[in-house]
Fold this protein.
Amino acid sequence: MNETEKKVMSIYRQTLPPRVFAGEASAINHFAWSLLAIAIGLILWLAIALINAENQRNALMTKACQDRVFAAETDTHCLAFVKSRAHWWEHLSYALTHVR
């Protein structure tokens, strides 16, 4: 390096903000935001599972998936695709308010 480059580099180094330790690269707390994102994802996943379980429970209670050939049996293919209520939020609200 020649003298001019050394001067430019020293001027550049002086304009950088001081760092207390190596982990202080940003002011954002990434750990807390990551925990929040994971918690929201877990809550959404559990809500979807609860909605599906309540949908199937309601279909079994109302006998919406009764087998046409054998009246005492349940059509398992129907349980996978049945819509026993009009909206998903009805399943969620019923499941959250009717806990035993």
Remarks:
- The chain has a mean pLDDT of 87.
